[in-house]
Target: NADP-dependent 3-hydroxy acid dehydrogenase YdfG
Amino acid sequence: MTNQKPVAVVTGASSGIGAASARALAAADFDVILGARRIEKLQSIAEECGGTAIALDVTDDASVAAFAEQVPNCSLLVNNAGGAVGVEPVAEASISDWQWMYDTNVLGTLRLTQAFLPKLIDSGDGQVINIGSIAGREAYEGGGGYNVAKFGITAMTRSLRIELLGKPVRVCQIDPGMVNTEFSTVRFRGDQDKADAVYAGVEPLTAEDIADTIAWVATRPARVNFDQILVLARDQISAKVAYRRETDQG
Ligand code: NDP
Ligand code: 8X3
Model:
């Protein structure tokens, strides 16, 4: 691979925030490498923004190694792949749902960070942007394993930031509130009515709103490190309280 532009890797780029970020970073003149499992969706987004689609399962060591091998240089790693499954209370939660959330969000971020850190350092101006969540700042009823995973990412971002002090790599975490993507469809295991109910009466953020933030952070001068950014819809004030126009209830 030969290129002059800085290379940005975006995980979970087949939909939602990741797809919008791939488009925004391509528009900001990055050479974008898109990773996710649904390769056809990934390829169509890559074609649209002039990027490169490479199959990636962030829960699979061999997949991460094969992905990283195809990307010799990297200036920016956006650890975005993730999500939630289920809203059961702690007392009733499924161990396998919690394992999925921990493996995808936390260990996925760890695997990609370990695979790309040497390349980010070699670039002379590297950046890691982890996608956390308001769920990594506030626990909520039914948040369970997703809260645990996103609080875990918050801790990992902070450790990494400290460990890289003095090295040419910035570390940022962006914590969105409600964003209308496939997130809730996945969380409710494909039940679209339940997914739509999450956003009823509220104007949520769009994937493009978060992608704008990512592209803005990524294009600041090398001396500037945004450690953690919370991005909420105007209609949302906390993990549980959003203004619902139809019911006037949070
Ligand atoms: P989407 O469900 O639209 O996107 C999730 C992305 O993650 C998909 O591209 C999916 O791709 C990818 N992904 C899931 N599992 C894996 C895996 N094992 N390996 C590689 N890629 C994987 O949701 P969002 O865009 O909303 O989510 C993006 C991130 O933003 C997540 O980390 C989420 O937790 C976070 N977030 C979302 C919020 C929201 O309200 N939407 C709010 C706060 C944070 P594929 O299935 O093709 O592998
Ligand atoms: C997604 C936002 O509030 O559903 O990270 O946990 S929330």
